[in-house]
Design a protein that fits this description.
alpha/beta, Protein-Tyrosine Phosphatase, Chain A, six-stranded parallel sheet, 3 domains, Rossmann fold
Length: 421
């Protein structure tokens, strides 16, 4: 992709958008950017680019699209937004940040997607590769954009890439050596019109694969067989059945996926197993924060859908006071009613979805509502008894109150630690 002197507009100035701007500049493009938001964080982040990038924030104007050679869209920007519609009417190509980075990537890619577990599996595979002495870069939806890393990647590396349905919507030539779909359950239905549309976006991960590539799917059942029909690649299924033996007793499906991926790169199984045993987990996913007056606090801010919270409730054996809420993603909260009734004694709800969640669980547990996470933590602590667990597992996106789930999780931990005072 020759971008020298090309006029390119980046739509959306989150992490991916900022990284895309910087990569475009390095490739000689004439860059502008637009974001309809106007926050202090956005002003600070975009301000670092103002000497080299023409930036508009607070609104989108058609002038930022007119006469451009290319539009690069950040994953958080819906494809029916005004700038994308203007570009398509004018016949201007639209690609995503992942597609932009891929155009300059000389290394094979392991692309990992799914409704839940993709961050954990991406990290696990990265740890296995490092333990085996393999050069790798872990990036993508995991927090550090592909565009921020690609300039430092050579053909000796393997890219281990977490990728979301939003990012897959805008790929064209993106072609991973190994494409992984861990699981599929209803999610992001506030953006995708149906589960089938969401699943179709995920299956785009197979779009450009051929018989020299690999597609990894969980287990063998009718749904997985249907997914397998979307790829020309060789299909490999991962499951517990493929890993008998006591050394695998504490493993779950995320571990089996990581083992299967590493086997394709001929990493000795004993190295992979040892790396998995050494792995300490990821921040904001069932992260133990503190124990205060006999009450355990767990940060599961990354649980942005119902299935992720179900996993958390199944994993914790203590009585639970649950903090939940945020921006609804079109979730069916009724799917977790039985588990809430059996495992949760009290709930503290906040965010845009608190009313919908309260209606779904009324009568199953004691419920309080509040307006801030700080008040939610303190309220949950007051409701808890010694031997209980206060669990932040929101079942919702964070964007109504926070920049992302990481900011939400970090504030939760700060408030918990302040309870010691």
């Amino acid at each position: 992709m020759d971008l020298r002197n090309k006029k390119v507009t980046v739509v959306g100035l989150g992490r991916s958008g900022i990284a895309a701007c910087k990569l475009l500049l390095k490739k000689g493009a004439r860059v502008s950017a637009t974001d309809c938001s106007d926050t202090e964080r956005l002003r600070v982040d975009s301000g670092k680019l103002r000497d080299t990038v023409e930036i508009e924030i607070g609104a989108h104007t058609e002038g930022q699209i007119e006469g451009r050679d290319l539009i690069v869209v950040s994953p958080g920007v819906p494809l029916d937004s005004a700038p994308i519609s203007w570009a398509r009417k004018k016949g201007i190509p639209v690609i995503g940040e992942i597609e932009l980075a891929f155009a300059f990537c000389p290394a094979p890619i392991i692309a990992i997607t799914g409704t839940n577990g993709k961050t954990t599996v991406t990290r696990l595979v990265g740890e296995i590769f490092k333990a085996a002495g393999r050069k790798c870069v872990v990036c993508g939806n995991i927090g550090n954009p592909f565009s921020a890393e690609v300039e430092n990647i050579t053909s000796e590396y393997t890219v281990i890439l977490e990728i979301s349905s939003f990012q897959l919507e805008t790929i064209e030539r993106f072609k991973p050596k190994v494409a992984v779909i861990l699981n599929l359950t209803a999610d992001h239905l506030n953006r995708h019109s149906s589960f089938n549309e969401y699943a179709a976006a995920k299956c785009r991960i197979f779009l450009n694969q051929d018989e020299k590539d690999w597609a990894l799917l969980k287990g063998e059942n009718s749904r997985q067989d249907t997914l397998a029909q979307n790829t020309r690649a060789q299909v490999l299924y991962f499951s517990k059945d493929k890993y008998p033996g006591r050394q695998f007793d504490r493993f779950n499906s995320n571990h089996y996926a990581a083992l299967s991926i590493s086997s394709l790169f001929e990493i000795p199984q004993e190295i992979a197993i040892d790396a998995l045993h050494q792995f300490k987990g990821i921040e904001h996913r069932l992260e133990q924060v503190a124990e205060i007056a006999g009450v355990e606090f767990i940060n599961d801010s990354k649980a942005t859908n119902v299935d992720a919270t179900l996993w958390a409730l199944d994993s914790i054996k203590k009585p639970i006071v649950l903090i939940a809420g945020g921006r609804d993603k079109g979730s069916d909260f009724a799917a977790v009613r039985e588990k809430i009734g059996n495992r949760v004694g009290a709930m503290v709800l906040l965010g845009e979805a608190k009313g919908k969640i309260e209606e779904a669980f009324r009568g199953l547990a004691k419920i309080q509502t509040t307006d801030t996470l700080s008040h939610a933590v303190r309220g949950a602590f007051a409701l808890a008894c010694s031997g209980d667990c206060v669990l932040l597992s929101p079942m919702c996106a964070s964007f109504d109150m926070f920049a992302d789930y990481e900011e939400r999780g970090k504030l939760f931990k700060q408030v918990v630690h302040s309870l010691h005072a």
